[in-house]
Design brief:
alpha/beta; Rossmann fold; CBS-domain; 3 domains; six-stranded mixed beta sheet; four-stranded parallel beta sheet; 17 strands; EC 2.5.1.47; amino-acid biosynthesis; pyridoxal phosphate; cysteine synthase activity
């Protein structure tokens, strides 16, 4: 028996996907944070921040909690406030679902709505309004989840260890979206301490600046930002996957229809990124991602066909083109590589002779790094003798590996994420490099703007 509902926070289940992973070799598991009593992963953060404030004397009995929130943190704060006897005011952007607003009010919270399409430093933004209210109301405390280090710390202390224990240390890839950055920072820090070889992948909506994209509005709630939060430590993220609103909502709907998991749009983003990343992995890999909140918050939004149509977010799958298709059309060519013990001078002359801007670094047939023209330019600019510098000393991370069956959309996303190329492989043998111009030429020649067919799976009758 628990003393209060707050004791039921955490220790959420980890569930392997079964149907959405058909055709994949790697396993993909989702940690169902919607099983927390407030319905989301933010219960952990809300309780941790309030406990920290109480210990520090920042929040006294009868005090007021004010927070700018995408909804779920507000629900967690409102739930804790109800148990602890605090007044709670939540400031939300106007893109939040009516279900979330109603839920906050059900817990006794007061809700203030602000416009979405204003600059992040505007006094009318949800952070700006929350700051003003905190100044005006006596005894008010603002958790500031975007700058409160209790946020990533609670994931380091609880979520990360739970994942490690539930997978018996076999997790190889962790995928999570970034809102405040607390989840990915805290979990990644813990997992990498246990196993530095674990890869951490950020799942980011198209339009968020966190993965380096051009800022634009997006519909998925709770993840992606137009600024970099103080609670986010980017050094823990090894790679990014950028996911469109349409794909996020499509996968969230598929999770309900095919896996029985009713989760929110950010969970769709996470799972879409996890599935995409898992395509390039073998059977020894276990990918873990986060089911951030319950889909019951979004029944009037992306679970509604009319809402999707009105927002032009009905998912449509275009004709597939693979790495094999591109290589076949382009024809065979010699792969330019360099060994790690070669000199930078040799790389310079090889690049000049072949007219290439990067070289894969292979050792015993395995890609261990890459050398870029900018690296060589920096070396010469700094006055170093390229005949005395080995490639091993200056090489960057290896280019991503893709097999012949990999969809060219996946290649495009990798190039969009900042890679200068990808290595095409067959049975672990590196065959060729695919660069941006290769992709441009292929698409230009094939004119892939062909008729599309909707792939949304209809419910069974």
């Amino acid at each position: 028996m628990h003393e209060s509902i707050l004791d039921a926070i955490g220790h959420t289940p980890l569930v392997l996907l079964q149907r959405l992973t058909q055709g994949l070799q790697a396993r993909v598991a989702v940690k169902i944070e919607s099983a927390n009593p407030g319905g989301s992963i933010k219960d952990r953060v809300a309780w941790a921040m309030i406990q920290d404030a109480e210990r520090k004397g920042l929040l006294a009995p009868g005090g007021t909690i004010i927070e700018a929130t995408a909804g779920n943190t507000g629900v967690g704060l409102a739930m804790v406030a109800a148990v602890r006897g605090y007044r709670c005011i939540c400031v939300l952007p106007d893109k939040m679902s009516q279900e979330k607003i109603a839920l906050l009010k059900a817990y006794g919270a007061e809700v203030v709505i602000t416009p979405t399409n204003v600059p992040p430093d505007s006094p009318e933004s949800y952070n700006g309004v929350a700051d003003r209210l905190a100044r005006e109301i006596p005894g008010a405390w603002r958790p500031n989840q975007f700058g409160n280090l209790s946020n990533p710390e609670i994931h380091y202390l609880t979520t990360g260890p739970e994942i490690w224990e539930q997978t018996k240390g076999k997790v190889t890839v962790f995928v999570a979206g970034v809102g405040t950055g607390g989840t990915i920072t805290g979990v990644a820090r813990y997992l990498k301490e246990r196993n530095p070889n674990i890869r951490v992948v950020g799942a980011d909506p198209e339009g968020s600046v966190l993965s380096g994209g051009t800022p634009k509005p997006w519909k998925v709630e709770g993840i992606g930002e137009d600024f970099v939060p103080k609670t986010f430590s980017s050094q823990y993220v090894d790679e990014w996957e950028r996911i469109s609103d349409a794909e996020s909502f499509h996968i969230a709907r598929q999770l309900a229809r095919r896996e029985g998991l009713l989760l929110g749009g950010s969970s769709g983003t996470n799972v879409a990124a996890a599935l995409r990343y898992a395509r390039r992995l073998g059977p020894e890999h276990l990918v873990v991602t986060i089911g951030c909140d319950t889909g019951r918050n979004y029944l009037s939004k992306f679970f509604d066909d009319n809402w999707l149509a009105e927002n032009q977010l009905t998912y449509r799958q275009t004709q597939r083109h693979s790495v094999a298709d591109l290589l076949q059309r382009r024809g065979p060519r010699q792969l330019a590589i360099i060994q790690p013990d070669a000199t930078a001078d040799e790389a310079i002359h090889l690049m000049e002779r072949l007219g290439v801007s990067q070289l894969p670094v292979l050792e015993q047939g395995r890609a261990i790094g890459s050398i870029q023209e900018i690296t060589l330019a920096r070396l010469l600019h700094d006055g170093r003798d390229p005949t005395q510098v080995t490639i091993r000393e200056v090489m960057a991370r290896p280019l991503p590996l893709v097999d012949l069956h990999t969809d060219l959309d996946e290649v495009y996303r990798l190039l969009l994420a900042g890679y200068s190329g990808v290595l095409a492989t067959d049975r672990d043998q590196v065959l060729d490099i695919i660069t941006r111009i290769d992709l441009i030429q292929y698409w230009d020649e094939t004119r892939t703007h062909s008729k599309t067919e909707p792939s949304e799976e209809a419910p069974s009758s």
